[in-house]
Amino acid sequence: MTGQGSRHRTEIDPRWQDIEVIERLVHESRTVAVLGLSADPHRPSHGVARYLRSSGLTILPVNPGLTSWEGLRAYPSLDALPEAPDIVDVFRRPEFTVEIAKQAVAIGAGALWLQLGVINEEAARIAADAGLDVVMDRCLAVEHREVVGWS
After folding, report:
1. What is the rounded CA–CA span in Å between residue 107 and residue 110?
2. Residue range 24-29: average pLDDT?
3. CA-CA distance, 141 to 147, in Å (whole number)?
4. Contact criterion met (CB below 8 Å) for 98 and 119
5. Which of 85, 76, 36, 40 is nearest to 58 (CA)?
6. Residue 91 contacts by C-beta under 8 Å, 6 or more apart in sequence?
7. What angle do CA 27, 140, 48 make, to 5 degrees?
8. Does the structure show a pLDDT above 60 at 106?
9. Residues of the chain with pLDDT > 70: what percent?
10. Which residue has the higher pLDDT, 148 or 69?
11. Mean pLDDT of the chain
């Protein structure tokens, strides 16, 4: 039913949650730009980045409010990164994702991953039309655990 406020769930186009794409990204990706990474250990972005780093992935923290995160240099924007990441993992509100998708395309990222609750069809289409893989409304850490399994 519509009109139920926060209880209503937006339907996601199944192509943005394709398990084959998710599994390939988890197996093949080595660098993840975590956009919106927080220094606060209680924030989801912090926990996801710590998990991914402990799993052997290279984390590129992106947050204009940070100079470093857990000993890693932080970058103010995607275009300041020293290399194009395999995945841009987005922890920002949906209204910011169209510009983020354009930036991810411009820097040559391999994929745009919009975290749980970050839903924007236009951003997904921009990235996909430019050849990036797109995952939306999924948690990269959860998917990584499910695909790779617990060590």
Report:
1. 9
2. 96
3. 10
4. no
5. 85
6. 34, 35, 36, 37, 38, 43, 44, 45, 48, 115, 118
7. 120
8. yes
9. 92
10. 69
11. 93
In whole angstroms, what is the distance from residue 26 CA to residue 8 CA?
30
Token pair in block for residue 100:
């983020």
- What is the DSSP pairing of strand 72-73 with strand 68-69? antiparallel
Please report, for residues 25, 58, 65, 110, 119, the alpha-carbon distance to residue 29 in angstroms, rounded to integers and kept in the order given.
5, 9, 26, 9, 22
Distance CA 147, CA 151 (A): 12
Give the per-residue pLDDT at 149: 75
pLDDT in the model for residue 5? 43
Cβ neighbour number for residue 150 with a 10 Å cutoff: 5
CA dist 72 and 136 (Å) reads: 26
pLDDT surpassing 60 at residue 65: yes
- Residue 6, pLDDT > 60, answer no
Give the amino acid at 81. L
